[in-house]
Amino acid sequence: MAAFVPVAVTPSVTRATAASVSASRAYGTWAPAPVVAARVAPAAPTMTFEAGVFEHTNPYAAELKETANYIARNGRGILASDESNSTTGKRLAMVNLENTETNRRRWRELLYTAPDLGQYISGCIMFEETLFQSTGDGKQFVDVLNEQGIKPGIKVDTGLTALPRTKNETATTGLDGLPERCARYYAQGARFAKWRAVMRIGKEDGAPSDAAIIENTHALARYAQISQAAGLVPIVEPEILMDGDHDIETTAYYTERVLSYTFRALNEFNVCLDAALLKPNMVNPGNDCPTKVSAEEVAKYTIQTMMRGVPGAMPGIHFLSGGMSDAEATANLQLLNTLEEGKRAAFAWNFSYGRALQIAVLKLWAGDDAKKDEAQALLTQLARANSMAQQGKFSGAHPSPGGAERNWQPLRLV
Q: Looking at the record, which segments are called Disordered (predicted)?
């Protein structure tokens, strides 16, 4: 019979071992001393800056935090104009314009040169082609934006691809060569970046699958790490699509689940949260859900989900419009900033709208430069409406001519 040997429970002994030892003592029996192998300290990770000392070793640390707070400040939002050439072509086709480099440039020039836009917009996300373009008279777009007090930003992902062995789920591409591209974008004048991950809800097939969530949140975190190392504030965009007939509770559940995985991954990759921004969906039911909900319900579920899932270190949450109508996007934003539940948040409730700021303007302009001034005035009015909503001060009729019409579009792998 083995002799009694006192067992010292050290950090290397598992909880199960400790429990077994305690039970043995309680019943008056003694086990042989376990053989515990010495734990070897892991090698220090190799990365651009060491974990925990971001402010000391990342040369862009102070600038990154300043930029994030500048973009998230009260009464300002983001103009998302980062559509790919393919998507822009589909937008131009709505008004019978050919998808050429000249027409894409004319359209973006109309947006960026709108008078007084900088009073309501603090950042503008651009596509790669657009970042390097100039106005018709030769002024670079980044300079046009900076003169209005609008920080230039850049979409750095390269689009969606099918995720193998899943049921029509997607992953986002673009990590290859990203450090070099980010360095080039910073040199051109970009000061923040954006990466979009897309997940859908499928009641019958269980989407989003764990594989889709893990793949997409890992890519978001790796992108954010690379972006900060290059001096660009990362906008992290985990989007749950409105496609489907699921109810609002289902959207809330999966949005919270995805946020949990997102911030877990960001922490694992040592991303500094107070030098980053979040661009999620609001919590809406599926586009085909038979049960309609009020704006108050959307706001309450959105606040609940974000308060549970987003750390207070993040300066701002910039919601995407995600197919909501122009008026709907403004009304929901207003409620996020006026309901008592939302006032406890440490972060700003803000906007990063694309379709909700652009579609009505595009339809008014339709390529006719005689209508350019009128179209620009409409853009500024739409930006002002959302700026006021972000402050909880919007009132009166919505400026969008088709404000109640939803801007939903099907998902495309481009």
A: 390-414
